[in-house]
Design brief:
Strand order of the largest sheet: 8-7-6-9-10-11-12
Largest sheet: 7 strands, parallel
Helix content: 25-40%
Number of strands: 12
Order of helices and strands: EHEHEHEHEHHHEHEEHEHEHEEH
Structural class: alpha/beta
Shape: globular
Radius of gyration: 22 Å
Length: 334
C-alpha cells in the first residue's frame, strides 16, 4: 500500500520540516505501508499534484475542492482509495462521484482550540486595541511635560464584554470552543447552527434561529464551513438586521461575507469593527477598501498556525487512517 504525504512548507518560526516529518514517519509502523513524504515549496496547483500523487493508494495533505476532487482529475489516479485533508474546512465536490469510485475522504478536526483562541484574540484587539496603545506608549517621550499630561489617556473606545450577547454562527468544534470562552467572560451565548446540537454540554448556549442571532448579538463570530448554502450569508440583508455597533469576527472562510456589504456596514457604523483572518480572495488580488480603515483587523489565514496544532493534525490524521483500516472510519466527509 503506497502512502504519500504532501507536507506543506513550514511557515512558522517554531517548527522545522524535520520535526514535523518525524510524526509522519510513524505511518511506516502500519503493516504494508510504503511511505513517501513530498515537500513542495508551496501548495501545488492541481496539475502539479498529479506527479506528487502518482500511483498512490493513500494521500495525506490534499485540499478538498472541486478543482481536485472531480472525475477527470481522479481518473489519473485509479489506485487512490483514501484521501485525507489536514484541515477542518473543505470546499464543494461531487460526493456521489467519490462514493462511486470507492474513495474515502476525511478531514482533520485538529485546531478547534487554536482557532477559537485566535478568534478571541481578534475580538480582544477590536475591543481594546492593546497593540496600538503599546506602540504609542513606547514611542512617546514621557520626559516632556505636555506628554505627561496625556498619560493614561486612551486612543480608542474600550469595550467591556461582560453581560453582552455573543452570537456564534456554526456550533461545531471551533464554535463550541469559542462559546466556552465567551461564557467564561460572562457573556450571554446564543448560536445558530444548521442542526441543533444535543447534549448537556450545550446547556449554557441558547440555540436560536438565524434572524434572532443577528438581532440580539453584540458580537458575532463565524465558525461555519463554506458551502453552497452558507456562501454570502453575511450580506446587506443580514447586516441590516444586526444591532448598531456590532462586532464581527471571521476565522472560517471569506466567502461567507459579502465584503462590499461589510464595508458599507463599517462605514455606516452598523458594524463597529471586524476581525478577519480570511478573505474571499487569498492572497488578495489588488487593493481592497477593507485595508484602508482602522475599523478592521485583517490577517493572512493564520489562525490555525501553532506548533501544537500542526503536530496534532499529523497525529489525528494518522489515527483517522488507522480507524479506516480497521473498518471503522471517522471524520468522513463524503
Amino acid at each position: 500500500m503506497k502512502v504519500t504525504v504532501i507536507q506543506e512548507a513550514i511557515i512558522q518560526p517554531d517548527l522545522t520540516k524535520e520535526e514535523l516529518s518525524s510524526y509522519w514517519i510513524k505511518l511506516i509502523e502500519i503493516p504494508g505501508v510504503e511511505l513517501e513524504i513530498k515537500y513542495p515549496s508551496g501548495y501545488p496547483q492541481p496539475e502539479e499534484l498529479h506527479e506528487l500523487i502518482g500511483d498512490s493508494d493513500v494521500v495525506f495533505g490534499i485540499w478538498i475542492n472541486d478543482k481536485v476532487i472531480n472525475e477527470e482529475f481522479l481518473s489519473h489516479h485509479p489506485n487512490l482509495k483514501y484521501i485525507a485533508t489536514l484541515g477542518h474546512g473543505f470546499g464543494q465536490f461531487d460526493v456521489e462521484m467519490t462514493r462511486r469510485l470507492g474513495i474515502t475522504i476525511t478531514n482533520t478536526i485538529y485546531g478547534a482550540q487554536t482557532i477559537a483562541e485566535y478568534a478571541w484574540a481578534m475580538l480582544m484587539e477590536v475591543c481594546h486595541h492593546v497593540s496600538q496603545h503599546s506602540v504609542a506608549y513606547k514611542k512617546t517621550d514621557w520626559t516632556k511635560l505636555e506628554n505627561q499630561m496625556d498619560y493614561g489617556r486612551v486612543q480608542t473606545p474600550q469595550i467591556e464584554l461582560y453581560g453582552k450577547t455573543c452570537g456564534i454562527f456554526g456550533l461545531g468544534a471551533i464554535g463550541y470552543a469559542f462559546a466556552r470562552m465567551a461564557y467564561g467572560f460572562g457573556m450571554n451565548v446564543i448560536s445558530y447552527s444548521r442542526h441543533k446540537k444535543e447534549g448537556s454540554k450545550y446547556d449554557f448556549i441558547r440555540q436560536v434561529d438565524f434572524d434572532t442571532m443577528l438581532k440580539e448579538s453584540d458580537v458575532i463570530s463565524i465558525h461555519a464551513p463554506f458551502t453552497t448554502e452558507t456562501a454570502d450569508t453575511f450580506n446587506k440583508e443580514a447586516f441590516d438586521k444586526m444591532k448598531d455597533g456590532v462586532i464581527l469576527i471571521n476565522t472560517a472562510r471569506g466567502g461567507l461575507i459579502v465584503e462590499e456589504d461589510l464595508q458599507a456596514a463599517l462605514d455606516s457604523g452598523k458594524v463597529f469593527g471586524a476581525g478577519l483572518d480570511v478573505m474571499r480572495s487569498e492572497p488578495p488580488v489588488g487593493d481592497h477598501s477593507l485595508f484602508h480603515t482602522d475599523k478592521t483587523l485583517i490577517t493572512a489565514h493564520i489562525a490555525w498556525l501553532t506548533k501544537e496544532s500542526r503536530i496534532r493534525a499529523c497525529t489525528m490524521a494518522i489515527d483517522n487512517f488507522k480507524a479506516y483500516l480497521a473498518g471503522k472510519p471517522v471524520s468522513v466527509i463524503n
